[in-house]
């Protein structure tokens, strides 16, 4: 049996009837956390690309920050590059 990855934190919004998620995951057998952006429809991973508006992106980022998907270090680096 292959060990499963661990989802550390997750944030999502509905875009065009599909659940758009950003997750912090710890792959099985790894010490390095990764971020994953995925789209789900009817409870199944959707392999189709998702087009969404610029208005949706800040909402997803806001939820990801508050769900602790994105680290304080990331937020600090973002502030350095973009006036927030």
Report on the architecture of this protein.
The model has no long low-confidence stretch (mean pLDDT 89). With 84 residues, this protein is of the alpha+beta class. Strands 1-2-3-4 form a four-stranded antiparallel β-sheet, covered by helices on one side. The protein contains two helices and four strands, in the order E-E-E-E-H-H. Strand 1 and strand 2 form a beta hairpin. The protein has one domain.
State the gist of this model.
With 84 residues, this protein is of the alpha+beta class.
Please supply descriptive tags for the structure shown above.
alpha+beta, 25% helix, 4 strands, 35% strand, 84 residues
Strand content: 25-35%
Mean pLDDT: 89
Number of helical stretches of at least 4 residues: 2
**CA-based shape:** flat
Largest sheet, described in full? 4 strands, antiparallel
């Amino acid at each position: 049996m292959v060990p499963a990855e661990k989802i550390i934190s997750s944030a999502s919004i509905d875009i065009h009837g599909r659940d758009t998620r950003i997750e912090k995951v710890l792959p099985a057998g790894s010490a390095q956390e990764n971020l994953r952006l995925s789209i789900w429809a009817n409870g199944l991973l959707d392999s189709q690309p998702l087009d969404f508006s610029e208005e949706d992106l800040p909402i997803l980022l806001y939820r990801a920050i508050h769900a602790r998907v994105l680290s304080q270090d990331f937020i600090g680096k973002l502030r350095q590059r973009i006036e927030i």
